[in-house]
Amino acid sequence: MTTFAPQSLPNWRRAVLKVGSSLLAGDAGLDPVHARGLAGFIAASRAQGREVVLVSSGAVAAGRGRIGAAGTGTAKNGIVQRQALAALGQASLMGFWQALFDAPVAQVLLTHDDLRNRRRYLNARTALQELLRLGAQPIVNENDTVAVDELKLGDNDNLAAAVASLVEADLLLIATDIAGLYSGHPRRDADARPIERVEAVTPEVLAMAGGAGALGTGGMRTKLEAASKASAAGIATALFCGRDVATVDALGNDVLHGTFIAAHGSRISARKQWLRHSPTAGVVEVDDGAKAALLRGASLLPGGVRAVEGDFRRGDVVDVRAGDGTLLARGQAQYNAGESARIAGRHSRDIEAVLGFRYDEAMIHRDDLVLLQHTDTPKEATA
């Protein structure tokens, strides 16, 4: 079988690494034989000042290992059984990874609904960013105990793409049990050739992918679908074999032996596009000083807010207007309408004293804000 030639990875500061069940499951639960190398890569990256969010499958396999194959029986409702096994295995999965890291691990359970709901999306992002700031090792897993459709689809790959966008990663790394994407099934087609770079995930590229694996619930197709979503958010993806020690070691030197799927556009432009066209739930009126700061690219601090209108929740998108009614920007609120009204005009350091808590020093962070022309036409300002 033809091997993948080495290629350089782009510079990255934050990455999401997805590890599937096929790399973790053993005969009696979880087996660290492949996980050790991946954990070593994460540790080496952290030592270089980089950040890696781990998206890990394996809770179902860990749960099965706790009760043994006989305990699973032949239940007719496979989804219910998998939910129960996931609940049994979550603690074991975290203990499994904790044994491989010096840093404390932190479990984050998500479903796709958490990422579709803008308020929960913002809460999840804030929590992950704080975990990274604290030096913890976030480990994200799908909340299999309550997720039904996700379990049937087996798309922790797609969850990883969503997490990459959530934490504004530079790179999505997907560890699999084969070397990368081939033009055909490498174990069945003697003429299958490695595809080392994909510029866009087209129907022709998807046609090269096979079905689901035996241990995991996703296959190469779900990985390509995830890469396509990451690409649309401005994030490149690298597919590689997590079983191969040399391949994993090379990643630590920013060398990929696998398939690289290019990003399109930028992360910022993708998010700004979403904000530009989102329905708004309220209005925040700002003074001239805040207006000038916003046009320079700053966040909106509470001190520059004069009035709050509407009944919006944390995570909702609101319009930002000047005192004369001119539309300046559109952004995602860090505080709900009542909280925003209470801290309007106050210094950021007073937020906790007024509310009893503080999410952020800004009412709208600059990463969650798109500048508009000084009209009601939502076009990004050139200032």
UniProtKB/TrEMBL annotation:
One GO CC term, this protein: cytosol
Keyword annotations from UniProtKB, A to Z: Amino-acid biosynthesis, ATP-binding, Cytoplasm, Kinase, Nucleotide-binding, Proline biosynthesis, Transferase
Main location: cytoplasm
Coiled-coil stretches: none
Enzyme class: transferase
Pathway(s) the chain acts in: Amino-acid biosynthesis; L-proline biosynthesis; L-glutamate 5-semialdehyde from L-glutamate: step 1/2
Record Pfam families: AA_kinase (PF00696), PUA (PF01472)
Catalytic activity: L-glutamate + ATP = L-glutamyl 5-phosphate + ADP
Endpoints of the signal sequence: none
Domain of life: Bacteria
Compartments, record wording: Cytoplasm
Binding-site positions, substrate: S57, D144, N156
Residue sites binding ATP per the record: K18, T176, D177, T217, G218, G219, M220, R221, T222, K223
Enzyme Commission number: 2.7.2.11
GO molecular function: ATP binding; glutamate 5-kinase activity; RNA binding
Domain PUA: 282-364
GO biological process: L-proline biosynthetic process
Family: Belongs to the glutamate 5-kinase family.
Role summary: Catalyzes the transfer of a phosphate group to glutamate to form L-glutamate 5-phosphate.
UniProt name for this protein: Glutamate 5-kinase
Organism: Thermomonas carbonis
